Amino acid sequence: MNPTIFFSVCSIIYCILLFVVFKMENNKKNDINSMFKFLLISNFLGLILEVIVSLVFGVHYENYKYILNILIRLIPLYHMIWMAGFIIYIMLVSSSNGKISKKIRIIVWAIVSLLCVIDFFLPFNVKLKNDVLMYSYGLSVNFVFIYCLAGYIISLFIMFKNINTLNKHKYAPLFALISSGTIITMIQSTYPECLLSISMHTFVLYIAYINIRKNQIQSIIDSKKTEKK
Q1: Are residues 35 and 166 in contact, defined by beta-carbon separation less than 8 angstroms?
Q2: Cα 39 from Cα 129, distance rounded (Å)
Q3: pLDDT band, very low/low/confident/very high, at 228 (cuts 50, 70, 90)
Q4: 95 exposed, middle or buried (CB, 10 Å; 0-12, 13-18, 19+)?
Q5: How far apart are CA 10 and CA 28, in angstroms?
Q6: CA-to-CA distance for 212 and 176, rounded, in angstroms?
Q7: Residue whose C-alpha is closest to residue 208's, from 6, 8, 2, 36
Q8: At 122, is the secondary structure helix, strand, or coil?
Q9: Taking the CB of residue 225, how many other CB atoms lie within 10 A of it?
Q10: CA 164, CA 144: separation in Å to the nearest integer?
Q11: How far apart are alpha carbons 176 and 144 in whole angstroms?
Q12: C-alpha 55 chain-centroid distance
């Protein structure tokens, strides 16, 4: 068994708690909250998939080879979908009214869907240790790595494009994603068996939630000030 899977198990528990708190304290429906909810649910499903692959089937690879080969292909797709959702989230927080056009959403998801289909058919290999699945590698994984790197660059471009209205708090999740992603990439370059990337998304969503709460509290304060006037 890959010992770093316990990061994923702990992240599942935290993800559930974060979802409960978010549902209890966020009754306001808007595009930013909806996208945060999408990212949170996606992250939860990604963590569950990672645990299933590593703990349930991965401990005896040859016995579940065909099932695992399908499940392993779903993990890169998760990364691509989550990254696309995060780019849309950055677009939303960069917008003055917290909204983006339906046309932009359709274009983003159409491109991502095409790239997901391409990646699904790219070859990959697995690293085993005593018939235990440790990690996957190959063209499919490299494709997702380049895709996510492009996602970082696009997110930074969106941020700098709105530099005049830049609020350091609303881009905190982006800084957290890039900084933690860089550290994890460095770790995995030496220890590729470390399962940290999906758990990193949970950490980024924690930062995003704090940012959402700050904005809500500030809105309440501004509203009370307006009422007093």
Answers
A1: no
A2: 33
A3: low
A4: middle
A5: 29
A6: 15
A7: 36
A8: coil
A9: 9
A10: 32
A11: 19
A12: 21
The span from the first CA to the last CA of the chain, in angstroms, equals: 63
H-only helix segments in the chain: 5-25, 31-51, 65-94, 102-120, 139-161, 172-190, 197-228
Cα distance between residue 41 and residue 34, in whole Å: 11
How far apart are the C-alpha atoms of 35 and 109, rounded to whole Å? Answer: 13
Contact 61, 68 (CB under 8 A): yes
Distance of CA 153 to the CA centre of its chain: 15
Which tens digits make up the pLDDT trace of 120-153? 999 988 888 777 777 788 899 999 999 999 999 9
| Model confidence pLDDT, tens digit, residues 73-118 | 899 999 999 999 999 999 998 887 878 999 999 999 999 999 999 9
The whole-number pLDDT of residue 229 equals 57
Q: Which amino acid is at 172?
A: A
- Residue type at 76 in one-letter notation: P
